[in-house]
Amino acid sequence: MAEPSSGRVGRGFLQRLLPREEEFFRMLEAQIQKTLEGARLLRELVQDPVAKDKLVDRIKEVENEGDAITHRVQAKLNTTFITPFDREDIHKLTQSIDDILDMVNATALRIRLFKLQNIPPEGHALVDTLIQAIEVLVTGIGLLNQMKNSGAIQEACIKVNDFENQGDRLLRQALAAIFDDPQDPILLIKLKEIFENMERATDYCEDVAVILEAVTLKNI
Q1: Predicted local confidence at residue 20, as pLDDT
Q2: Using CB atoms within 10 A as the burial measure, which of 109, 150, 163, 167 is most buried?
Q3: What pTM was computed for the model?
Q4: What is the rounded CA–CA span in Å between residue 34 and residue 181?
Q5: How is residue 149 annotated by DSSP?
Q6: Which one, of 73, 208, 200, lies nearest residue 136 by Cα?
């Protein structure tokens, strides 16, 4: 059942009256920065799969560090009376950011598991698009504690959507390229999964942007 309007007004009044819990903003910023670190390491891995053991291990460490931040956010939600914006939105935001880093880690693990020695140029383009989308999310989430900058946040969300569309196009091109020259069907299957994981991570970026935009619209 929807929350009565009087309840929303009352909560909004309390949020203005009481000091805001700024730590949520810091944790969300740390989480998206950790996600960007993981994606940049994935780009290094794509550029040099031969160095995969060291890079994959580091990506897993970054993913664990991101998980730790996610758990801290959830624990903080359970002990904070007045949150800076809807606690459900904070929960969804941190979970969606976590999904991006989980997929980055899953992609890195697959590259090692499949013993890939070379990633085609299409994979490089996909991971570059992912990084660009995350960089825009870093900007958007960094503006969350200044809701008066809602226009800039919404602009960032539109850019993420553009990168998600670009990821879709790149995935289609990548699949067309490997299916046009199916000399090694096993390699084809491996690359298909890697490309799809990269694009799925960009889809998760769009999920974060949708939540981010909803938060700004509720709080302007």
Answers
A1: 56
A2: 167
A3: 0.88
A4: 37
A5: G
A6: 208
